[in-house]
Amino acid sequence: MVEKNTYDAGSISVLEGLEAVRKRPGMYIGSVSGKGLNHLIYEIVDNAVDEHLAGYCDTIRVTLEKDGSCTVSDNGRGIPVGMHEKGMSAARLVFTTLHAGGKFDNSSYKTSGGLHGVGSSVVNALSVFMDVEISREGYVHHDRYERGIPVIELEDGLLPKLGKTKTTGTKINFLPDGEIFEKTRFKGEEVKNLPVG
Ligand code: 0RA
Q: Would 173 disulfide with which of 30, 129, 131, 192, CB 3.0-4.6 Å?
């Protein structure tokens, strides 16, 4: 079936993207030192900042959790959860599709000139887990990944709902992978001083 082939091709390219990032993390986040580790937070916050710059978000919170994970939440519109033309949740595509080649493989550092969510898939690939809650259209939508691979079953191609909400926003909780990074413990003082802009 055409649909089945299309789906298989998509699955393969997602896995190939994950493998590319995990094989050469430095190409995507600069290094696997403490600096690269901090860069994971930067990538996620950057997307929330884009949502702020677009005029839809006034609060971004970064929490270093006791289990070593980091949570970044914003009160923007929420990553779109509808059906993308590829027949899958748009949100899941954001977290599983590698956008562009890699920021650090070229001297011309590409700033996100449209689609935000760029970088989320890289952080996902380099995390033991990534848990995502998107509040939008009246519901909290949930997704979860382990080393970049989705572990939640879609419902008619869309993310399952955890419950109702009157708010909007995106919350991303991720744990950096000790198989990738030299050290995985975030330092509050460093995170507070992450470069912006
Ligand atoms: C594209 C479209 C829309 C929201 C976002 C991206 C978005 C991305 C991120 C990443 C972190 N927080 C975010 N918040 C929003 C919304 C399009 C619409 O509602 O019409």
A: 131
